[in-house]
TrEMBL record:
The lineage of its organism: Bacteria, Bacillati, Actinomycetota, Actinomycetes, Micrococcales. This is NAD(P)-dependent oxidoreductase. Residues 30-44 have a biased composition (Basic and acidic residues). PROSITE patterns: ADH_SHORT. The keyword Oxidoreductase applies. Signal peptide: none annotated. Keywords: Oxidoreductase. Residues 1-44, 242-262 are annotated as: Disordered. Pfam families: adh_short_C2. The keyword Signal does not apply. InterPro entries: NAD(P)-bd_dom_sf (IPR036291), Sc_DH/Rdtase_CS (IPR020904), SDR_fam (IPR002347). Gene3D superfamilies: NAD(P)-binding Rossmann-like Domain (3.40.50.720).
């Protein structure tokens, strides 16, 4: 069933309770039960991004994998960023995209490292012959019930991965972006409606919304658009890798659909924001949360 066929969204995907499962960060898509749907068998491209050249961070799994599949099937050639531990997941994505005739170049590395962010962009420009699309999906999430348990190292890791990397990647990319290019960030409904155990993560996600709104204004005179996607609960390895098995088995239960979203339900939003059809869309956030409010 393609993304264009009419369907009832409620029963479309598995609902909790899910089997109890535990992973450590970074999680793996291949270890999840049920397996997430990234649009592998459903996303149909319509040549909306022919000739585009982009970077997708966090492209090995979850929402980033879904964004990479959707962008690639619309015609974009991509550099895929992920952590070295995620090599197997990343190779699965590369094999899929290359098997469909697009370029998909693997660049593992740590985005909490400034030098790597600049290297990643330089490598993409070199290998793709330029750059017009920067899609930042990577994110780090931990859970702590008590602020007194939190360490500077942990807070640094969250902020460097989720916020600093957006500054570094944008600084590296902007000199290469011509008018008509775009940047997409990935926030969260946690940015507006934080859970108490996601203190540093939620603060970082709130900052991503602010980053997007401010940078969009700064880059408007250059003809570069900047937008964000704010997901609600989505079935990805981030959840079993950062939450306890009991919570994960009920993940998404409280949302109005009674289930979490699947990564496949987000791919089209990234395409829409990158596509030139969105020429007057900048500084905005698309919430994808199955009717969960984001305010
Ligand atoms: P995921 O685990 O599949 O993706 C996160 C990715 O971030 C990893 O695959 C990894 O490649 C990357 N990453 C983490 N730390 C990194 C680092 N230091 N250097 C390089 N890459 C790093 O999970 P996901 O849920 O698809 O997460 C994608 C984005 O969506 C994140 O920004 C997350 O905050 C956001 N989000 C997820 C949910 C959800 O419920 N799953 C909800 C709201 C927002
Ligand atoms: Mg991953």
């Amino acid at each position: 069933m393609s993304q264009y066929e009419k369907k009832d969204p409620i029963g479309l995907y598995p609902a909790p309770p899910f089997p109890k499962q535990d992973q450590s960060l970074p999680g793996r898509a291949s270890k999840m039960d049920p397996k997430p749907d990234h649009g592998e068998t459903s996303y149909v491209g319509r040549e909306r991004l022919t000739g585009f050249r982009g970077i997708v961070t966090g492209a090995d799994s979850g929402i980033g994998r879904a964004a990479a599949i959707a962008l690639s099937r619309e015609g974009a050639d991509l550099v895929l960023s992920y952590l070295p531990d995620e090599q197997e997941d990343a190779e699965e994505v590369r094999d899929l995209l290359e098997g469909e005739g697009r370029r998909a170049i693997l660049k593992p590395g740590d985005l909490s490292d400034e030098a790597f962010c600049f290297e990643l962009v330089a490598a993409a420009v070199e290998e793709l012959g330029g750059l017009d699309t920067l899609v930042m999906v990577a994110g780090h999430q931990e859970s702590h019930d008590d602020i007194l348990e939190m360490t500077t190292e942990g807070i640094d890791n969250t902020f460097k991965t989720n916020i600093y990397s957006l500054f570094w990647l944008s600084q590296a990319a902007i000199p290469h972006l011509e008018p008509g290019s775009s940047i997409v960030t990935t926030g969260s409904i946690q940015g507006n409606t934080p859970s108490p155990d996601k203190l540093d993560y939620a603060v970082s996600k709130g900052a991503i919304g602010t980053f997007t709104a401010a940078l969009a204004q700064q880059l408007a005179p250059k003809g570069i658009r900047v937008n964000s996607v704010a997901p609600g609960p989505i079935w990805t390895p981030l959840q079993p890798a950062s939450g306890d098995p009991e919570t994960v088995s009920h993940f998404g239960e409280g949302s109005p659909y009674g289930r979490p979203g699947q990564p496949a339900e987000l791919g089209a939003a990234y395409v829409h924001l990158v596509s030139p059809e969105s020429s007057y869309t900048s500084g905005t956030t698309i919430t994808i949360a199955g009717a969960t409010p984001n305010y």
